[in-house]
Automatic annotation (TrEMBL):
It comes from Porphyridium purpureum. The lineage of its organism: Eukaryota, Rhodophyta, Bangiophyceae, Porphyridiales, Porphyridiaceae. This is Cyclin-H1-1. One of its GO terms (molecular function) is cyclin-dependent protein serine/threonine kinase regulator activity. One of its GO terms (biological process) is regulation of transcription by RNA polymerase II. SMART domains: CYCLIN. Gene3D superfamilies: Cyclin-like. Residues 361-372 have a biased composition (Basic and acidic residues). Pfam families: Cyclin_N.
Length: 418
């Protein structure tokens, strides 16, 4: 694996908070434009049918007024940014529940959730079915982590525990989930994340920081307790936030240790140790080494100050996430309401679970089969023509080459020879 500084994660998948908001807002605008275009196309067709006489002007005027009303209707129908976030969170949590039930390593779920977040940066959940994308993310993570679970087994396991995983119910116009659902969506999924499958998560940085912190504070028990708390906070809250899109794994790890050093249950039994002070000093020491390596001497102090401020911002963000998310998760009923609302305006051609998608695939297969037959026919005609030129006979007089003809010729030859 390449160093983080040379990775696609740093170059292509690390953003500012404003950039993330802008990408998601643009994706939502695409959906609004698509739905409005569909309504306008229908209204234009209706206006064309109703027009044709002196009433054309009045008809068109009413048509345009109707379009203005349609814009308001569309904005009410599409998911709000907060509703999209809630729906994404629901599917991210489902990914981790599936991993735990299957006894998969935590890193598999974290990697899959990272893929899921990347996928929905540039497209909305109203364009691609999030349930299919969630399973595609998990399937890709299993491959990357070299865990042998094929698509059929994964789908079978998920369907067997439908109630436990609170799977979205099949809506009108849907087809059952199967292994082909994931396999057919695989290329689209990989294209959307630019085939960038290497993920850097804070787990490795936390393990390294724990070892160095033990030498720094001379208290292995306190460090182990702190590391477990940081690991737990990341897996239960930070992983489902946007922080993994906003900062480096190393800085997130330091921020987690800093944040957890203030937690009462971590400080319990360590009254004789200023754990928070020790962790802050450790973070500064680590950042000093990093700044000295990456900056000239004249710039090192400025670089150090900037990194310390970033760590403090991350600590504040983790505190907000941890405090807000504990009791504000989306309920099963609310998730189902959002799924129904999303399904009503989704792009069915992008959903492998829709009848429209299946029909489109069938039409494409029929077209490809026709093109293949035409190509084979032309190849046969070309061979016949070349063979006719070789023998000096008209092409139509050359018998079509088949297995049975070849066998008849060989039999005649054997009779002649013997």
């Amino acid at each position: 694996m390449a160093l983080y500084g040379e990775s696609t994660q740093k170059r292509c998948w690390t953003f500012t908070a404003d950039a993330v908001r802008e990408l998601r807002s643009s994706a939502r605008e695409v959906v609004i434009h698509r739905v409005l275009s569909q309504l306008e196309a229908g209204s234009d067709a209706a206006a064309a049918v109703d027009g044709g006489d002196d009433r054309d002007r009045d008809v068109k005027m009413r048509h345009r007024e109707s379009l203005d009303g349609n814009r308001c209707v569309v904005l009410e129908k599409v998911l709000t940014e907060r509703e999209e976030m809630a729906l994404r969170w629901t599917h991210e949590m489902r990914i981790m529940r599936i991993c735990k039930a299957y006894n998969l390593p935590t890193v598999v779920g974290a990697t899959a959730i990272t893929y899921f977040k990347r996928f929905y940066l540039r497209v909305s959940v109203m364009e691609f079915a999030p349930f299919v994308v969630a399973l595609s993310s998990l399937y890709a993570a299993l491959k990357v982590e070299e865990i042998n679970v094929d698509a059929a087994k994964l789908v079978e396991f998920v369907l067997e525990r439908e109630q436990e995983f609170e799977l979205p119910q099949l809506l009108q116009g849907s087809v059952p989930l199967s292994a082909d659902t994931i396999l057919n969506a695989e290329l689209t999924f990989l294209e959307q994340i630019d085939f960038h499958l290497i993920c850097y998560l804070p787990y490795s940085s936390l393990r390294t920081a724990k070892k160095e912190l033990e030498a720094f504070v001379k208290n292995a028990g306190a460090c182990d307790k702190l590391w477990k708390a940081a690991y737990d906070v990341f897996n239960t809250s930070v992983l489902y936030s946007d922080l993994i899109l906003l900062s480096t794994p190393g800085k997130i790890a330091l921020a987690l240790l800093w944040f957890c050093s203030c937690l009462p249950h971590v400080q319990e039994g360590l009254e004789d140790l200023d754990l928070n002070g020790a962790v802050r000093a450790f973070c500064r020491s680590t950042l000093e080494r990093s700044s000295a390596l990456s900056s000239a001497a004249s710039m090192a102090e400025d670089a150090l100050l900037a990194k310390e401020q970033e760590i403090e911002r991350l600590v504040a963000a983790i505190n907000t996430i941890d405090r807000e998310d504990v009791g504000n998760r989306t309920s099963k009923e609310e998730a189902w309401r959002l799924e129904v609302k999303r399904y009503a305006i989704e792009n069915k051609e992008n959903n492998p679970l829709s009848e429209q998608y299946q029909q489109m695939r069938s039409d494409e297969k029929t077209k490809l089969d026709h093109l293949r037959r035409e190509k084979q026919k032309k190849q046969r005609e070309k061979r016949d023509h070349e063979f006719a030129e070789l023998l000096g006979a008209p092409a139509h007089s050359i018998p079509e080459a088949t297995g049975s003809v070849d066998m008849d010729i060989s039999v005649k030859k054997r009779k002649t020879l013997f």
